[in-house]
Amino acid sequence: MGVYEQNVGDMHVPYIVPGECSGRADVRWVTFQNNDGFGIFASIYGSSPPMQMSASYYTTAELDRATHNEELIKGDNIEVHLDHKHMGLAGDDSWSPCVHDKYLIPAVPYSFSIRLCPITSATSCHDIYKSQLQN
């Protein structure tokens, strides 16, 4: 477990055929801030387990449209996905389609809660998350 910092643009993986990338697993909280420090804080809430997170300057539609990495058109906005569970790690791919049973997500009801709040450069995201744990 640790705290990591990375620019969204650096999270992109230039696969030959573009696809979803930049995913992070077991995320407890994440912040997105502009150069002035203004942004948003997102965290798991209550008894929710860690989430899956991805962020990209390329929309899902743009990744689906392009057939080569050099065809991608970078947007001005960041598309963020905060997910309870994500199927696709370790098994289901386009060149060898197979899904191992242990990686399937059962079709049962799930409950997932996240907390969103605006932040500034003066905000301590560590303090927000710690105070949430105490409540």
Present the secondary structure layout.
Elements: E1 24-27, E2 29-33, E3 39-44, E4 51-56, H1 60-65, E5 79-83, E6 114-119, H2 125-134
Antiparallel strand pairs: 1-4, 2-3, 3-6, 4-5
Short account of what is shown:
With 135 residues, the protein is an alpha+beta fold. The protein has one domain (8-134): Beta-galactosidase, Chain A, domain 5 (Distorted Sandwich), CATH 2.70.98.10.
Q: Overall pLDDT, averaged?
A: 84
Oligomer: single chain
Q: Topology as H/E string?
A: EEEEHEEH
Helix fraction bin: 10-25%
Q: For the CA atoms, what is the radius of gyration?
A: 17 Å
Number of domains: 1
- Work out the strand percent: 15-25%
Query: How many strands in all?
Result: 6
Task: Please mark out the parts with pLDDT under 50 across 5 or more consecutive residues, or reply none.
Answer: none
In CATH terms, what is the architecture?
Distorted Sandwich
Number of helices: 2
- Largest sheet at a glance? 3 strands, antiparallel
Quickly give the structural class: alpha+beta
**Strands in their spatial order, largest beta sheet:** 1-4-5
Instruction: Give the end-to-end Cα distance, rounded to a whole number of Å.
Output: 22 Å
Overall shape = flat
- Just give the CATH class: Mainly Beta
Tell me the CATH topology: Beta-galactosidase, Chain A, domain 5
